[in-house]
Amino acid sequence: MEILALFVDVVLHLDQHLAALTQQYGAWVYVILFVIVFSETGFVVTPFLPGDSLLFVAGGLAAVGGMDIVILALSLAAAAALGNMLNYQIGRYLGPKVFQWQNSRFFNRGALLKTQVFYARHGGKTLVISRFLPLLRTFAPFVAGVGAMNYARFLFFNLLGAVGWVATLTLAGYFFANLPWVRQNLSLVIVGIILVSLFPVAIGWWNGRRTRGDT
């Protein structure tokens, strides 16, 4: 419970924690953020790491001189793209047998199956759309690897999604995170970002449940 409370505190007060890291580690904060984004997108066991909210808050810090927005955006776009590339290779190596794994503390089988359905419906565009959807963001490249998606096609959609995701959220933070109302209600804004990003997933879950109920 203490670990969960700490994680929630970090997510809801990212501005304070990130500002403290910037003051304490200086330029090394780019490396720290790189590792977080790379891990969130590179391993199917770490979808719980902050993604959208982290990019938004980091962009806000860049606006007040805490970081350089260009270096920030380029490094995080690289982290997101490289993370997906690793995840793809892991999925390619493990193959379809992963769908037989049972749900556990470190593996969300339900999210994997939902991503498979999403991927079957949208194809390569899944790698772009899922960037803005927690859980699916982590599982999409893995499913692409399991399905042996053409690598050149994967790279195209991967880079498109990584750049679009990072640019959208860091620039949103850069221009809006330091507005007086946003600064005073940043925790609520972070919660809002999380809820908005989870909304399509919830709709998909509800539609799937309703469909199962009708059959």
Explain what this protein looks like in three dimensions.
With 215 residues, the chain is mainly α. Helix content is 77%, strand content 0%. It has one domain. Helix 3 (28-42) packs parallel to helix 5, helix 4 (52-63) crosses helix 9 (151-176) and helix 6 packs across helix 8. The longest helix has 29 residues, at 186-214. The mean pLDDT is 79.
Described by the principal axes of the CA atoms, the overall outline is: elongated
- N-to-C SSE series? HHHHHHHHHHH
Strand portion, in percent? under 5%
| Low-pLDDT residue intervals, each spanning 5 or more residues | none
Continuous helix count: 11
> What's the number of structural domains?
1
Q: Output mean pLDDT.
A: 79
Structural class computed from helices and strand pairing:
mainly alpha
In terms of quaternary structure, what is this?
A: single chain
Q: For the report, how would you describe the main beta sheet?
A: none
Secondary structure: number of strands: 0
Span of the ends, CA to CA: 39 Å
User: Helix proportion of residues, in percent?
Assistant: over 70%
Radius of gyration, whole Å: 17 Å
